[in-house]
Structure formats: C-alpha cells, structure tokens
Specification:
This protein has 16 helices and 9 strands. With 462 residues, it is an alpha/beta fold. The protein folds into 3 domains: 76 residues, no CATH class; 171 residues, no CATH class; 200 residues, Carbon-nitrogen hydrolase (Nitrilase/N-carbamoyl-D-aminoacid amidohydrolase, 4-Layer Sandwich), CATH 3.60.110.
Length: 462
Amino acid sequence: MASQLTEHWFTTPRPGPPTPAGDRSPRGGSEITPFLQDSYGSHQITTHCPLTADTTDQSRFRTFGIIYARYNRVLHTRPPRGFILPVSGLALGAAAWRGHLALIPLSLLVLLFFGQLQTRRQVFGLTVAYYAGATWQVVPGAAAFFGYHNNRIQVLLLWLSVSLLLALPWTTLWSPKRVTRLYTVPIAIILMAIPPLGLIGVASPLTTAGILFPGLAWFGIFLMLLLCALLASYPLAGLGIAIVLSSPIQLLYRAPKQPSDWQAVSTHFGGVGLDTPSPIAEYVAAESIKETALLSPARVIVFPEAVVSNWNEATDAFWAPALEILKRHGKTILIGSNVSDTHSSHYFNSIVIRGAERHSDFLQRIPIPFTMWKPGSGRGVPLQLVGPGTLEVAGQKAAVLICYEQLLIWPAISSFEENPTILLGLANNYWAQSTSVSEIQRACLTSWARLFSVPMLWAENT
C-alpha cells in the first residue's frame, strides 16, 4: 500500500530527462528515501520530477513523516511517566479512602513507587495526586456543608492547597538512596501527624496500623513506621515482614466486648440548627432526644455532634424536668451542641454532659480549618490543642474524637496517651450524604479501636 501511494504521488505524465547512473539529481526523491525507508519500510522511488507542485507535495509528505515518526517514538520508546504517576496516585488515594476498612492498606502502595522515581518533581506529582484522590469527596459535599456561603472556586482552591501542602514533606525528604529513605520516610509521616501539618494530615499511612497490627497499641505504630520505611526502600523485605507479622496477629486478635450500659444513638435530623436555625425543627429534635434517653435501658446515652444548636442557661431550664428524671434513674446523657464563649465571639463545638453525672463540657480540639476554625479571626471555633482527649463517665474513660478529628492522627494519639477504656466517635454528616465521608470516618475509628483493643461507639446525625 505504501509503495502504491508513493508512486501515485510522485508519478507525472511527462517524465524528465534521464539522469546518468551514479549522478544525484538536485531535486527528486533521493533525500527523502532514507527517511521513508526508516519510517515506513523499504521501497524504491524510481521517478524524479522537477515540477514545483510535486516538490511541494514531497515537502508536505516529509513533514507528515517527521511528525508521525516522532509521535511513534514517544509513544513506544518513552512511556509517559509524567502522566502515569499522577493517575496512579489519584487512583490509589481514591480507592484506599472510600470508606472500606480493608481498602485502607492500599495507601501503602504509593510507597512502592518511591524506589522507581528519579526526581523530586515525580514525587511531588505522585503525592499531590494521591492526596487529591483521598480528599476529593469534600468537593461534592461542600454545597450542603457551606450552605448559601458556598463558593465552588474557594472549595476547589482549598482542596488543591491541602493536597499541595501534604505533598511537600514527601517531596522535600525524598532521596534516590535506599538507605536514606529508611529514615526520611518515617520522618515525613511523623511531620504530617503532628501540628502544624497535623492539623490537615489526613489519609496517613499510620491509620493502617490498626488493620495490620491489631492489639499492639504503640508497638503497632512503631511497626507501621518501620514497614513504611521498608516499602519505600526494600519493598520485598517490607512485604515479607508485613505478611509474617500481620498474619498471626490477625488470627490471635479478639475484639473487645461492647459495654452493656452504654448506648450510642444515631439520628436523622438533617441540618437542624445549623446555618439557618428552625425553632420548630429544633424543638422536635430536642423532644426526640429526651424520649430516646428516657426509654433507653443504658446508663450512658451518647448523641451525635451538634444536634442541639446552642446550649445555654435557657436550654438547661428547658431540659430541667427531663434531666431530673434521668438523674433519678442514674442515667447520664452526652449531647453534641454548640456552646457560646461568654468572653468572646467564639463558640465551642462541645459535648454537654448532663443527668446523673454532670461534668464540664468536652470541647473539640481541632475543628475544620478555615470553615469552623478561622485563624486570625475573632469568630468561629477556636483551636484547643492542649485540651483533654478523654472524659470519665460511669466508670469508663472515653477517648473522644469529634467529626473532622477522626480523619487525623494527632487527636487520636493524644487521646490514647491518656489510656482510655472506650472510644467515642461523634459526627454530624448531614452535609455528606452524597459522599462516603461518614464511612471513611467510621473506618478510621475502627482501625484505632482495633489497634488499642478498646470498644468503639459511633453516634452520627444525617
């Protein structure tokens, strides 16, 4: 086919004068012949033509051949790694953090790429894509979360900024040397677990510790750091150690029993009391909480985050008759509520404790940055990094993680430093019904509960 096309393009009705053997024509196809033979295979051009139109055709044909040859070379001899790496990172991030406990270890596969990368630019592209894939679900949920304040451009910028910031430690500390990566990889993971980066340090490989090494507590975290270092430097050794250590631990692990006198209640109040308060809806929600608590056989009843819009002295008076009945029956309720700060324009995302036991409110330590916690502003929910991580009720010391905190490392490890006997997770995810944010939060909590071998209670509003 190629030979027929060539003859058709170059043959003319009036052939030129014969060229002596051994001579080279100044026009004709001899210059293009080696290129065509190299690009399309061996063929012979036997006709030479001096016409300008035919020379133009040759020039166009030659240009097309050059473009095709270059594209062919790039496609087959130079794999587009700059494209493959980000796509792989995006896919791994999205797959690992979709809300299934068994899929979280897929996040470790990103570390296997580190031994194959050659430049920091490649590391940056891979890790930015990984975090973008792990956190993309904030985008579809933003419309409900921000309400009428929603600005999609701001949400996208926030999403991309978090991905870029979390990629920086990996990029800065990455090294082409295996031995160096043995300690730089754990350092990068630790830097993203503790503040300031720990305030946004989601999708951490450390979350996998409770899945692979349940019941090992702090030693499990150490093993997780060691495994991450090996996967990035000596992947076969890392995989071998993971299999050898994790398999018997999984077989020996026994989940702790749930406390019979504690109950976590999930509700379906939607966005009651948030952004655009509705007094009637709030009243209906409060009556439902009272009825549930009074009918419950448990000593401690836990309700989700922010199901009461604002708890104050008037709220205590409104709840007084129900609280008195609960007190007589030895019951205590834990209710998520906003509590205004009497000394500033701030408010606290709190757990109010009332009934048979009354304690100081438990305050969320790390609110969502820029939406709840607004640095440099006198409004919003203030950061409480040094606040307590546990509360004691009815003979149990409960580690408490509220909503966004469930995705981070710092609140979890600071809570478990206080040796809790139970883990409480409270969330208000009415805004995330079209996403798997709720499932991701619960999977993270389950992993921490497995790691430290404590029962976990989950109270969520949708």
